[in-house]
Amino acid sequence: MNNSNDNILYLSQKEVKLACKEVDSVAVIREVLHLHGIGETILPDEAYLSWKNSHGEAVRSLNMPGYVGGSLNIAGTKIINGNINNPKRGLPRASGLTMLYDDLSVRIVCLMEGAQISSLRTASVTALAVDVLKGRNIHTLAVIGAGILAKAHIELLVQRIPELRSIRIYDLDVERIHALESELAPFLGEYEVAMRLSSSAEEAIRDAQLIVPTTTTTTGYIQYEWLQRGSILVNVSLDDALPEVVLKADLAVVDDWHLVKSDPRRLLGRMYRQGQIVGPDDVIEHHTGEAPRRIDAQLGEIVAGKKSGRRSLDDIVYVNPFGLAIEDVAMAAHVYQSALKLDLGIWLSR
Q1: Identical topology for domains 7-117+326-349 and 134-324
Q2: For a tag on the chain, would you pick the N or C end, based on fewer CB atoms within 10 A?
Q3: Residue 207 contacts by C-beta under 8 Å, 6 or more apart in sequence?
Q4: What pTM was computed for the model?
Q5: Is the confidence at residue 334, as pLDDT, over 90?
Q6: CA separation for the pair 11, 19 (Å, rounded)
Q7: Is 42 exposed, middle or buried (0-12, 13-18, 19+ CB in 10 A)?
Q8: Best CATH choice for the domain 134-324 from the list 3.60.10.10, 3.40.50.720, 1.10.3720.10, 3.40.50.150
Q9: Could you give phi then psi for residue 207, rounded to 5 degrees?
């Protein structure tokens, strides 16, 4: 392969998947969130572009740059575009590219398909949250939604939670569940984990010690009373929980408070604007009514030992992983090194 400075390495989704097999994704996420927790990353606001396509559908494009220090010392950006109507056309809801920059010249050195890394790092953040916030044994996992993110979570969590025996899954489209069941059957059989279709989100959630919503909804529906004592809700798709869950949870954790509060479209950003919540280190001014609920910590602060996590086995834990560009950049850096080692990809002339 020609890897001179005059070329850019391109990695397709298939090649990214092959390279990912060489990467301990949860260890990478732990490393980057630790660096984030001690201030060795740079994470600007994401650029959010939304418009209507020729069919009048709401579509969007996000550009999310980031720098990761420590031993990685690398910067890059993730571009992710989405249309919630894409699955009706047989297309993924979201797709994108991740770019890495040369440390010295800052020219682009690698361009790779972004969706594989995005889904894997999302599942890996959930797995890390379980590692650092787990209380009682997790025998049942509830997954709401049966798409790509659901599959990524199931594949990773089944391997990492040895006591897991049951997955309760719910989706508005039952055929999606059947397709996912069929695809995962050999894998789940190997780990002796049963997947059961639930008749409602409530039914799935009430049975579970770990709940992972992977939907596209913008309307909350998860009620606090559905949650077992000691359970963990990792609100991956961000809007599934009702405000009461955030307000009543014993522990509320985000990945980056600044990004969370800056987004007016998502649950926590809306709650912040309504004066219902404040950040881990915000000063609470005098209130005549009920004081706002304080978000307890950023996940990286818990990983770095700067903030405490679960206080008791009975704590209900709410985790809001906004999704950070530094995670994609760190994952992409490891994928890039694996691809070079495995001789993967195509070199493109500048």
Answers
A1: no
A2: C
A3: 140, 142, 166, 168, 198
A4: 0.93
A5: yes
A6: 9
A7: middle
A8: 3.40.50.720
A9: -85, -10
CB 110: neighbour CB atoms within 10 A? 23
d(CA 224, CA 211): 12
In 3-state terms, what secondary structure has residue 128? helix
- Comparing C-alpha atoms, which of 43, 34, 38 is closest to residue 262? 43
Residue 344: phi and psi, rounded to 5, are: -100, 155
Cα three-residue angle 47-48-53, rounded to 5 degrees = 140
For the chain, domain boundaries = 7-117+326-349, 134-324
Length of the chain: 350
Render 129-187 in DSSP notation, one character per residue. HHHHH--S---EEEEE--SHHHHHHHHHHHHH-TT--EEEEE-S-HHHHHHHHHHHHHH
13-20 helix and 115-133 helix, angle to the nearest 10 degrees: 30
Confidence grade of residue 120 (pLDDT, cut at 50, 70, 90): very high
The sign of the torsion formed by the CA atoms of 9, 13, 15, 19 equals: positive
Question: Which residues share a beta bridge with 76?
Answer: 66, 100
User: What are the φ and ψ backbone dihedral angles of 136, each rounded to 5 degrees?
Assistant: -75, 165
Of 204, 152, 158, nearest in space to 180 by CA: 152
CATH placement of domain 7-117+326-349: 3.30.1780.10
- Tokens 């991956």 belong to 236
288 band by pLDDT with thresholds 50, 70 and 90: low
- 132, two tokens: 């650092």
Query: Does position 132 have pLDDT exceeding 70, yes or no?
Result: yes
Nearest alpha-carbon partner for 29 in 140, 147, 160, 146: 160
Q: For residues 231 and 223, give the distance between their C-alpha atoms in angstroms, rounded to a whole number.
A: 13
Q: Which two tokens stand for residue 118?
A: 């995005």
Residue 2: pLDDT band by 50, 70, 90 thresholds?
very low
> Token digits for 317?
């834990």
